[in-house]
Amino acid sequence: MSASMTGAQIVLQALADQGVEHIFGYPGGAVLPIYDELFQQDRLKHVLVRHEQGAVHAAEGYARSTGKVGVVLVTSGPGATNAVTGLTDALMDSIPLVCITGQVPTHLIGNDAFQECDTVGITRPCTKHNYLVKDVNQLSTVLHEAFYVARSGRPGPVVVDIPKDIQFATGLYAGLSNSQHKSYRPPKEGDASAVEAAVEAMANAKRPVFYTGGGVINAGPAASERLREIVRLTGYPITSTLMGLGAYPASDKQWLGMLGMHGTYEANNAMHDCDVMICIGARFDDRITGRLDAFSPGSTKIHVDVDPSSINKNVTVDIPIVGDCHHVLNQMLAAWKKKNPKLDKPALKTWWDQIDTWRARNCLHYKKRDDVIMPQYAIQRLFALTRDKDVYITTEVGQHQMWAAQHFHFDEPNRWMTSGGLGTMGYGIPAAVGVQMAHPNSLVVDIAGEASVLMTMQEMSTAVQYDLPIKIFILNNEYMGMVRQWQELLHGGRYSHSYTEALPDFVKLAEAYQGVGIRAEKPSELDDKILEMIETPRPVIFDCRVDKHANCFPMIPSGEAHNNMLLGDDASEEDLENAITEEGKVMV
Amino acid sequence: MTQPGSAYSLETHKEKSETHTMSVLVDNEPGVLARVIGLFAGRGYNIESLTVSETEHEAHLSRITIVTTGTPMVIEQIKNQLDRIVPIHSVTDLTVLGSPLERELALLKVAGTGEKRVEALSLAEAFHAQVIDSSTGHFVFEITGEQSRIEEFIALMQPLGLVEVCRTGVAAIARGAERM
Question: Is residue A582 one of the residues assigned to a domain?
């Protein structure tokens, strides 16, 4: 199909042909022709955010909770530069996005025109790919290619920069085509002999562990199904990164909890002591490995990743398999079933016994109090009271994020939206807006900190405008909690600028936005207040006043190994002071 | 003192640096070179030499030859990171394939009179360098060859009135009948 239309019409037609239903954006001079087309149609629903960063995070939340490509529309100059944080966030966490940016007219590019910036230059390192469209006849092809690149292989954000004159110009629209991309063809199937070798190593394992990540979630719900199948078939323990939570049900007995810097004692020790590590769709990030030269010594490492550059980047692996998690898991399952291996049952029994002793350490334990709400307790109650609900969780970044990962348990993929790689404070509210847009009848909760939440609080206004009943559940300790915790551990308790002396009254703030404000100050009133929040069919800011000095444990101090964890209940002041070595202090 | 060991201190791997020559086939489109160079700059890789030109006009394909140094792990990263740039068609590590044919072209401007001038001209002949411009006071030599040979020639010209040098960077191709 090819038809003659304006550039702006081509944009809308391409989005419609890609199956796009929602876009998140903010108008401005250089995208007015596209907004004019939006005004004259009702196929696409546009969500007006309050800041372009919010548009990108909302699209991320939308993409992560649906598996679809999120779409953003912003103007040139400041519109594009404001989007940069979100684009970088999406690149780090491999979230498929297409971000359309307006640009000054072609003849003004490079002239320092009003609201001009070098968008393709600025976004080159923070996108998977980007385009500047200089010919209206190329526009539809570029847009379709952008969607293909965004969702294929290791997903990521793609920017399409469209000068204003191209939006006005008339050109030919080329519809979806099945032709192969000329250069970008990401791998699907893994190498068969590598899969054989992996299955052989797995079959002979005495102390195996599955270590999975966001790649499984990105490969779609079917990949999570295959993962469950192979983990149950083998009977091996499984842990996951922050990004991978939900791919395997947290309520299952083979689940060890999250691993890494704030992961569980059992997960980290299993990683350290295992003899076969089966890494699927995770990338040996520094939050996971801790001290590299002491990372899981003596294990045979299998690594499945769709991105070859993730393999052997931080940790040298023994059996690399380049391929899409879903395809490779299918291959592994087939090979395992064909082999029907006889497992070393006594060794595996010993391994599970060892894991049980680690579990008995009860590493997530904390001291409950009657006078003040402990942040962990707040999350536990939130989890307990929403168990029977269709719930989606987003977070900001910091202590509350780690407590949420530890104490809110996920049994399904695509239910947990958090900024992992970039660690973007301010992610949670706009992400919740995007999630709620995609799932209007579900319960969407942003588990937040009072510092993070102020970075994108204006999106509360978006939630109110579109009747999105998101719940912003703030664990308010008046500190940038994780900064405070590190200052306590590393900097002699000198709390340099981590205390916010002039916080807003969050209840009044909610009311000012025409939402609902709820405050809980005592453990005894927490349940009722949480239930009130759940039952309120409008956007809520929940000001949960928690213990100001609680620390997030367990913790692998930076520069330490997996088996050298700091646990909460037995950490004396002396332990805390000496927890991090001089070398560790230079790290982040 | 023990070395800190985290992702922030990868230097603990004191592996030997190697020099590799890579041939990269890319779509000849605006910005593609910026993507390649940006990758090296952003990830802290070295570029020793870089040569680029369109080699297949109908397909609009350019061939970039990069000489780079790094530990084997870094070299593997460079190859994989390059390979995931969307408009890149293929990345070939020519060094892995076995000593590739490498040539560079240099232009040297040498000014002088008398004995030095005579000496410069006779050395140029010995190196099979061409005179492509001259006056009574100067020569411009064109020399093609392996990098080491060009280095040698430049060093010899230094005391003979070398004014300036321009070099193209390495062009490289694998031995044998096969296409890359």
Answer: no
How many whole angstroms separate alpha carbon A554 and alpha carbon A263?
7
The verdict on residue A576 lying in a domain is no
3-state secondary structure A103-152: ECCHHHCCCCCCCCCCHHHHHHHHCCEEEECCCHHHHHHHHHHHHHHHHC
A464 domain-assigned: yes
The larger pLDDT score, comparing residue A231 to residue A562, is at A231
Q: Which helix (H) or strand (E) holds A542?
A: strand A540-545
Residue A185 lies in a domain: no
Instruction: Give the model confidence (pLDDT) of A310-351 as tens digits.
Output: 999 999 999 999 999 999 999 999 999 999 999 999 999 999
A2-56 confidence digits (pLDDT tens): 789 999 999 999 999 999 999 999 999 999 999 999 999 999 999 999 999 999 9
pLDDT of residue A585: 63
Q: Which domain holds residue A281?
A: 192-359
CB pairs under 8 A between A and B: 84
* Domain B101-173 CATH class label: alpha beta
Among the partner residues B4, B26, B88, nearest to A583 by beta-carbon distance: B4
Same domain, A268 and A387: no
Strand order across the A471-476 sheet: A416-417, A391-395, A443-449, A471-476, A540-545, A516-520
Residue A209 DSSP code = E
- Predicted local confidence at residue A577, as pLDDT: 59
Q: Is A443 in contact with A392 (CB distance < 8 Å)? A: yes
Cα distance between residue A59 and residue A75, in whole Å: 16
- Residue A588 has a pLDDT of 62
Please indicate whether, in this complex, the C-beta atoms of B6 and A309 are within 8 angstroms of each other: no
Q: Quick count: other Cβ atoms within 10 Å of Cβ A546? A: 28
Per the CB < 8 A criterion, the answer to whether A92 and A422 are in contact is yes
Q: Would you put residue A329 in left (φ > 0), alpha (ψ -120 to 50) or beta?
A: alpha
pLDDT class of B3 with cuts at 50, 70, 90: very low
DSSP single-letter state for residue A479: B
Neighbours of A184 (CB within 10 A): 19
Q: Do A292 and B10 touch (CB under 8 A)?
A: yes
Nearest chain A Cα distance for residue B73, angstroms: 7
| Structure token pair of residue B92 | 């070939």
Q: Rounded mean pLDDT of A196-211?
A: 98
Closest to B97 measured CA to CA, from B6, B12, B179:
B179
pLDDT of residue B8 exceeding 70: no
Look at the domain B15-97 and name its fold. Answer: Alpha-Beta Plaits (3.30.70)
Q: What percent of chain A has pLDDT over 70?
A: 96
Inter-residue contact B18 to B70 (CB < 8 Å): yes
Closest chain B C-alpha to A68 CA, distance in angstroms: 21
| Contact of A37 with A210, CB cutoff 8 Å | no
- State the average pLDDT for chain B: 92
